[in-house]
Design brief:
Layout: E1 9-10, E2 31-33, H1 37-43, H2 47-64, E3 68-69, E4 77-80, E5 85-87, E6 93-94, H3 98-112, H4 116-126, E7 128-129, H5 135-163, H6 170-186, E8 189-190, H7 193-212
Parallel strand pairs: 1-5
Antiparallel strand pairs: 2-4, 3-6, 4-5, 7-8
Helix pairs in contact: 2-7, 3-4, 4-5, 5-6, 5-7, 6-7
């Protein structure tokens, strides 16, 4: 409520009286999946703002809440019949320590500028190192990984153009997360588990962006709140254009 986002997002209301120790009864939310472009257009006049709203709600939860939703695949995000975004299934959540938060801010700036060396520096600042990390070599490996991400994004755009919808390949998402961990490990760096959770969710949103708003630059658009909490971006106005994993590991 304090962020002005209750008019653009929703989560199912629980019904304790109808629940038990092993059964949780919740409100049913009606809508379409975040990858159903044609369905989204029935409930939202501006799919791009729908995406911005969803991303802001999630980003602000990372910044300001005790935990954030750490499983935003297409089955857990709906565009509701009233235009809001519905967040389902909080079975996997995460927390962001201050050290990771500051590094994510620096990483976001470097990503927006296409600065692989800056990205390497930010990742080094958040991870645990055994020996001194060669920043230049790490940056080259990051650049190669960015090329792979770009190629995967092209596949999503082409599928969306042909079918009006797109699939988000969870196996591919997981492979990319593993690749990031491997690149870091090969350079003597172990990234914190919280960063792995963040990256996986960011990759989901990257796929949604390619489908719903292919011209949107999520790294630099002033409407989008930053993950780390630097204050970049503003919460969208309410309206029809939309709302601790204790054992999670990066690998």
């Amino acid at each position: 409520t304090e962020n002005g986002l209750d008019g653009v997002a929703a989560a199912p209301k629980p019904y304790p009286a109808a629940s038990a120790r092993r059964v949780l009864t919740m409100e049913r939310l009606r809508g379409v999946a975040m990858v159903d472009l044609e369905g989204i257009r029935k409930f939202s006049d501006e799919p791009e703002m729908t995406l911005v709203s969803a991303l802001n709600v999630w980003s602000l939860s990372v910044q300001r809440c005790d935990f954030f939703h750490a499983d935003v695949h297409a089955g857990n995000l709906l565009v509701l019949e009233d235009g809001r975004v519905g967040f389902l299934d909080f079975g996997i959540v995460g927390r962001m320590p201050a050290k990771v938060s500051a590094a994510v801010d620096a990483l976001s700036v470097a990503l927006a500028e296409g600065d692989a060396r800056g990205m390497a520096r930010a990742l080094i600042s958040m991870g645990a190192t055994v020996d001194e990390v060669d920043e230049a070599s790490f940056a080259k490996d990051i650049q190669k990984l960015l090329v792979r991400l770009g190629n995967a994004a092209v596949d999503v755009v082409e599928e969306a153009a042909e079918r009006g919808t797109a699939t988000v390949d969870e196996a591919q998402i997981q492979d990319i997360v593993l690749d990031i961990a491997q690149v870091a490990g090969n350079n003597g760096l172990k990234l914190p588990r919280e960063f792995g959770l963040l990256i996986k969710q960011a990759l989901y949103f990257d796929r949604y962006q390619k489908l719903l708003a292919p011209d949107l630059d999520m790294a630099s658009d002033p409407r989008i709140a930053s993950l780390g909490g630097s204050g970049k971006g503003a919460a969208p106005a309410a309206g029809k254009a939309p709302t601790d994993v204790v054992d999670a590991e990066l690998v």
